[in-house]
Design brief:
A two-stranded antiparallel sheet has the order 1-2. It has 7 helices and 2 strands. The chain is globular. Helix content is about 65%, strand content about 0%. By secondary structure, the chain is an all-alpha fold.
Length: about 250
């Protein structure tokens, strides 16, 4: 299959524009899931099922594209696509089965499915059919630094999610202040880890689709981390702990 540059650039520019709009919207409106889900929402999807079905396309579409690609296999292509798919494999088949959170609004789940489908398609298409792999690519410092950041961010994300799950007993919905790991320094350690992941992926590939996705991630879940910071300050009088220089996000 030939590279469809028009499709790649259109989706990438849409991610950039969408990220800016999402960031501006979240300055006044909190995305309605988790603790910010309004009681008036009628159509709900159970938390575990919602996370499974909405994350699955971002894993499944690139995986199918690799298996059905007619182009000869390349180490670089396989390495980067497997890196991308690894995140969504963990989110789809591990995170979704462990989560004990609130149900999600059906509308939110549908939007997430559409986003993950399109993003998985554009990232897979670009890496399979557009990305140019040079002979020195595997020794490029950007690839090494990018992959280190990706796996570091993934470790932070997974560890932070574990801390959040351990805050509650099964069936309990009481909110508590997360402690330990990077939560001693940032209010949204799980979001921080995911942003580091996709920043690393963007550095490793150096591609516009990956950079635009990292930018969208920053704009979408960065403000949510700030919302959590304000939530903790409003709900708990002893937050943030005075012994640590705890910050809302990354600044």
């Amino acid at each position: 299959m030939a590279c469809n540059e028009g499709f790649v650039w259109s989706v990438s520019l849409t991610l950039v524009f969408g990220g800016v709009m999402f960031f501006l919207r979240q300055r006044t409106v909190r995305t309605r899931y988790g603790r910010y889900l309004e009681p008036s929402v009628v159509w709900l999807v159970p938390g575990r099922l919602a996370w499974f079905v909405q994350e699955l396309p971002a894993f499944l579409i690139p995986a199918v594209m690799v298996l059905t690609a007619q182009a000869p296999s390349r180490l670089g292509r396989s390495l980067l696509l497997c890196t991308f798919c690894l995140h969504y494999f963990q989110r789809t088949f591990i995170f979704s089965l462990l989560i004990n959170g609130h149900p999600l609004a059906l509308k939110t789940v549908v939007y997430a499915i559409v986003f993950c489908s399109i993003n998985g398609l554009v990232q897979g298409h670009h890496l399979l059919h557009c990305f140019q792999y040079t002979q020195t690519w595997l020794t490029d410092i950007c690839l090494v630094i990018g992959l280190i950041l990706f796996y570091l961010g993934m470790a932070i994300n997974i560890h932070s999610d574990h801390i959040l799950r351990c805050l509650r007993k099964p069936g309990e919905l009481t909110y508590r202040i997360p402690k330990g790991g990077l939560f001693d320094y940032v209010s949204g350690a799980n979001y921080f880890g995911e942003i580091i992941e996709w920043l690393g992926f963007a550095i490793a590939t150096g591609s516009f689709p990956a950079i635009s996705f990292a930018f969208f991630t920053l704009c979408s879940i960065g403000p949510r981390a700030c919302h959590h910071h304000r939530f903790y300050k409003e709900k708990f009088s002893d937050y943030p702990p005075s012994r640590k220089a705890l910050i809302p996000f990354i600044f």
